[in-house]
Design a protein that fits this description.
The complex is a heterodimer of chains A (304) and B (248). Chain A has 304 residues and is α/β, with parallel strands linked by helices. Chain A is built from 10 helices and 16 strands. In chain A, the strands form 4 sheets. In chain A, strands 3-4-7-8-9-10-15-16 form an 8-stranded parallel barrel, surrounded by 6 helices. A 4-stranded antiparallel beta sheet of chain A has the order 5-6-14-11, with no helix packed on it. A two-stranded antiparallel ribbon of chain A has the order 1-2. Chain B is globular, with a radius of gyration of 17 Å. Classes of the chains: A alpha/beta (304), B alpha/beta (248). Chain B: Belongs to the PyrK family.
């Protein structure tokens, strides 16, 4: 059974299953549940050049088939990451994709420049789509001109694989996909969380402190599937599908419509073994169908 | 910490509370300390954090006390013997204890389970439990004669009429403790009141926060401490009260 997929520019995954940024910490906690070598790779918690405290609490609330979070990109900063986490992570036989962001163009460049020196990092995922910070992040991801400038500058900054993570909080996501491709991005990943809200009728308060937050989980899967399909049609670079994937069947749906790989987000919280289970599930499914190479499945939807 | 199954062997209910006794084949599940909790499957998307009330390695038994307050805890309350659920744990740190200590264990409402477990572990050292509730219905009869216990209810239906503050005063008066230490778990209002009334007594409390993962990766459960945000699920749930900015 051949499960490996090639995302371009030296990023070949042993299988198409990645853990999504912000839902797997810096990866090591998952070793309690299965060896990281089972999965294609991990996308680390979003890193900025300097550490960030994050938003006030409450930061999370559960909703029907999903959750809303407003973590605010709390992270230990790039320097602590390479000193404390990267050496341990590099021992694991899996790809390390470092998710990065900044509050300004300069900060994005600075963190990529700094991290590009480290051989152990296999690629970057650039978060231009976080709905949980006042400035930066989503500004870049909802304005095509800013996206263009950012991707073009980052392309000149690093030789490593550059995956751009798109925001669903726009009218036409394909516009952004095309801009990324045009400026030399190697792949795009989508979707980040949808902007959402929850209130409590007993306490008459907003359920999370910053009122609005990022909506994720099984509830967003149909929206994600639609957007991934639209982007697969719009660009030639690999598209990585994210949004509500909780089991191997969900993953196979994204691959069927043309996603080259998938990321597991919220499902890691309620089923931390899900990365391993999805790889096994995909493998068994393809075997039963007599399909020897996953690339025969990817994009094979009957599409007139 | 592991993910695995729990088989419900026995259930007892008491008003809105249920005591659930599970059996498990997962050996790591049985390496628990007072203060640890599990994320339990509960017919909601996210699992629900519930403290360990008791554990017996030989019988492969884990016990929890659950108060019905929403969809998830109602599912647990309504589970029937013979049913199996998925769980993740044990998670979290535990109460600091040593054999020479003089302890006042203070629990309110559904905060009592970790203190029951704790009182069994420190059977030989000097300690008294203060267990407070609004009414009789909030006091689950779990202790029996297993530990010296003072009960307080706000309407006086059971034990001393008043709050846990009155209970703690009574313990201090009666036991002649030299260097008492308070170990608490309960509503934040209760914990704040203890801090205000007994500012000089060392005090460790087990916090509750809304949790998504329960094993340290989502950063949803953080609490503000003197050293910045810490994760309640893995850096806690037990904290020295002086460390916590939010309870000042
Ligand atoms: C470390 C830890 C140990 C716990 N141990 C126990 C225990 O031993 N026994 C027990 O009965 N309960 C315990 N709890 C509380 C229990 O986890 C919550 O009551 C439960 O998650 C509520 O879920 P629900 O779906 O029933 O309610 P929901 O429908 O989610 O919520 C009902 C109401 O409770 C509030 N709420 C929900 N979750 C929490 C939470 N984690 N902390 C505070 N308020 C919350 C909501 O904001 C809402 O107002 C513990 C919590 C933590 C964090
Ligand atoms: C608690 C939480 C934190 C997140 N943090 C980040 C982050 O730091 N960077 C990022 O690019 N995406 C972040 N995301 C978005 C996820 O990576 C993913 O795109 C989104 O949750 C949708 O997938 P899901 O429905 O499978 O969760 C976060 C999501 C959650 C739930
Ligand atoms: S609940 Fe996820 S980090 Fe604590």
């Amino acid at each position: 059974m051949e499960l490996s997929v090639d995302l371009g520019r030296n990023l070949k995954l042993k299988n198409p299953v990645l853990l999504a940024s912000g839902t797997c910490g810096y990866g090591l906690e998952f070793e309690n549940f299965y060896p990281l070598s089972k999965i294609g790779g991990i996308c680390t918690k979003g890193l900025s050049y300097k550490p960030i405290e994050g938003n006030p609490t409450p930061r999370i609330v559960e909703t029907s088939c999903g959750m809303i979070n407003s973590i605010g990109l709390q992270n230990i900063g790039a320097k602590a990451f390479v000193e404390e986490k990267l050496p341990l992570l590099a021992k694991k036989d899996t790809k390390i994709i470092v998710n990065i962001f900044g509050y300004s163009l300069e900060e994005y460049i600075k963190v990529v420049e700094f991290l590009s020196e480290y051989q152990e990092i296999d690629g970057f995922e650039v978060n231009i789509s976080c709905p949980n910070v006042k400035k930066g992040g989503i500004q870049f991801g909802t304005n095509p001109k800013l996206t263009k400038t950012l991707v073009s500058k980052l392309r000149k900054t690093t030789e490593k694989h550059l995956m751009i993570k798109l925001s669903p909080n726009v009218t036409d996501i394909t516009e952004f996909a095309k801009v990324c491709e045009g400026e030399g991005a190697d792949s795009i990943s989508l979707i980040n969380t949808l902007l959402g809200m929850a209130v409590n009728i007993e306490t008459k308060k907003f359920s999370i402190k910053r009122k609005m937050g990022g909506f994720s989980g099984p509830a967003i899967k149909p929206v994600a599937l639609r957007m991934v399909y639209q982007c697969v049609k719009a660009v030639k670079i690999p598209v990585i599908g994210i949004g509500g994937i909780s089991n191997y069947k969900d993953a196979l749906e994204f691959l069927l419509i043309g996603a080259k790989a998938i990321q597991i987000g919220t499902a890691n919280f309620f089923n931390p073994s899900c990365g391993k289970e999805i790889v096994e599930g995909i493998s068994n499914f393809l075997q039963n169908k007599g399909i020897e190479n996953i690339n025969q499945w990817i994009g094979s939807i009957e599409d007139e | 910490m592991k993910q695995g199954k729990l088989f419900l062997k026995n259930k007892k209910t008491y008003f809105d509370y249920a005591i659930l006794t599970f059996l498990t084949e997962v050996e790591d599940f049985l390496n628990v300390k007072p203060g640890n909790f599990f994320m339990l499957q509960a017919n909601t998307l996210l699992k629900k954090p519930i403290s360990v009330m008791d554990c017996n390695k030989r019988d492969k038994m884990l016990k929890f006390l659950v108060k019905k307050i929403g969809k998830g805890t109602e599912f647990l309350y309504n589970l029937n013997p013979g049913e199996t659920i998925d769980a993740i744990g044990p998670s979290g740190n535990s109460f600091p204890i040593d054999e020479t200590g003089e302890y006042i264990l203070v629990g309110g409402g559904s905060g009592i389970p970790p203190l029951y477990f704790l009182s069994k572990q420190i059977e030989k050292s000097r300690h008294t439990v203060v267990y407070g509730g609004r009414t009789k219905k909030d006091i689950v009869p779990i202790f029996g004669k297993s530990a010296p216990t003072i009960i307080t209810t706000e309407n006086g239906e059971l034990g001393i009429k008043g709050t846990v503050i009155d209970g703690i005063k009574k313990v201090i008066e009666k036991n002649n403790f030299k260097k008492p230490i308070i170990l608490s778990c309960g509503p934040e209002g209760m914990v704040k009141a203890i801090k205000k009334n007994f500012p000089d007594i060392p005090h460790y409390t087990s916090l509750e926060r809304y949790m998504a993962c329960g094993f340290g990766v989502c950063l949803g459960c953080v609490v503000e401490t003197n050293e910045g945000y810490k994760r309640v699920c893995v850096d806690g749930p037990v904290f020295n009260i002086n460390e916590l900015k939010e309870l000042k």
